[in-house]
């Protein structure tokens, strides 16, 4: 697909009615808009408009991981059973899909990749000079989630970015972990939800005191967090106690309770996965030590669904510019030959200027139908060419999130939208 597209050519169409089996707003709007298609509970296909959003998110994630020093790989979804037995997770992880073939062989369908990435690195890592390293991938995960009813916020198959870092010492790990906090902050800002996403303290499980989640405020969220708006930091309700509050220097009276969804997390793994695979290095004295690890996840589909949940209004989706399928939705209204000719000219000029345009050139639709499709699909800008706009010698330009538009010339339009 090029950067611009005629809506008349798009194979998907919008739907007025929400599918009756979807209760979540993100799935309802995304299916009505033709962004995604539901295959079964917790499993969705991405259609042209939805894939464009997902790829833009992917690019932002990739850029930020590369900046942080990550090296991209792509690991297999099929994973050896022995690896999972080694970590005790073949029977210990309730969401694990176990697949068997006609020969009776069993494999795991990867819900996460510690069991794969550690043995890979073991082939290449011997000395402290090989450390630190950070490997990441953007890849489909499989998890047997119970009752998935949150659309693409919680899939049984879903796209995740998972990064794993490897260090010679806890100290070195902590330096990198802190750096990743900043990387995640930037990333969520770029995706357009920085203002409603909080670094959140959560329990660290058995291995460390805390982990950090990045929680985005939305009523669709399954978590409850307490936000300190002054510092911009939050605590997950699950870890909230007077002891934790005092450790974090937070005051109960300053906290507000919010529903939120975890869009990403960063985790101290210590030697939990390096130990069972004996992933170790020798220091400068020739002594052997286990490698210290961290992991850093982001759900790309969940991120997309979160943007829909958090930013949509009662008319439809409102994409941030950075991840919108197209920057501009150009509408031609009516069947008047002059109008159609002018709209074609505008489309061509915008295309030439390198602006991403979805051109609603469909014949036989009322202005109302085109307007409500534009609101549902949620491009950041809408430009209308109609008999009325031509009478005023221009194009009516409106932001998705504003009520009133204004008449601009083609030159002004291009100047405003050129990347
Ligand atoms: P949750 O508590 O929401 O189940 P998790 O703790 O299981 O999340 P991780 O295993 O750390 O999540 O996965 C890393 C990231 O992947 C999460 O922060 C989230 O953004 C995303 N994610 C996890 N499970 C799903 C899912 N079922 N569907 C879509 N995205 C998911
Ligand atoms: Mg989970």
Largest sheet: 6 strands, mixed
Strand order of the largest sheet: 1-19-18-20-21-22
| Radius of gyration, in angstroms, nearest whole number | 25 Å
In CATH, the topology of the largest domain is named BirA Bifunctional Protein, domain 2
Number of extended strands: 22
Could you report the average pLDDT, rounded to the nearest whole number? Answer: 96
Q: How many structural domains are formed by the residues?
A: 2
Counting DSSP H or I runs of 4 or more residues, the number of helices is 11
Oligomer: single chain
Q: Distance between termini?
A: 18 Å
Percent strand? 25-35%
Q: Which ligands are bound?
A: adenosine-5'-triphosphate, magnesium ion
* Shape annotation: elongated
Residue share in helix: 25-40%
What's the architecture of the largest domain, going by CATH? 2-Layer Sandwich
What is the name of the CATH class of the largest domain?
A: Alpha Beta
List low-pLDDT spans.
Answer: none
Give a structural overview.
The protein has helices at residues 25-32, 48-67, 81-86, 114-122, 170-191, 242-247, 300-311, 337-352, 367-377, 387-391, 410-417, and strands spanning 5-6, 36-40, 43-46, 71-72, 78-80, 97-100, 106-109, 133-142, 157-167, 197-203, 210-217, 223-228, 233-236, 255-270, 280-282, 288-290, 292-299, 328-332, 357-360, 381-385, 395-399, 406-408. The protein is built from eleven helices and 22 strands. Helix content is 29%, strand content 29%. The chain is elongated and about 80 Å long. Strands 1-19-18-20-21-22 form a six-stranded mixed β-sheet, with helices on both faces. The mean pLDDT is 96. The site of adenosine-5'-triphosphate has 16 residues, from strand 9, strand 14, strand 17 and helix 7.
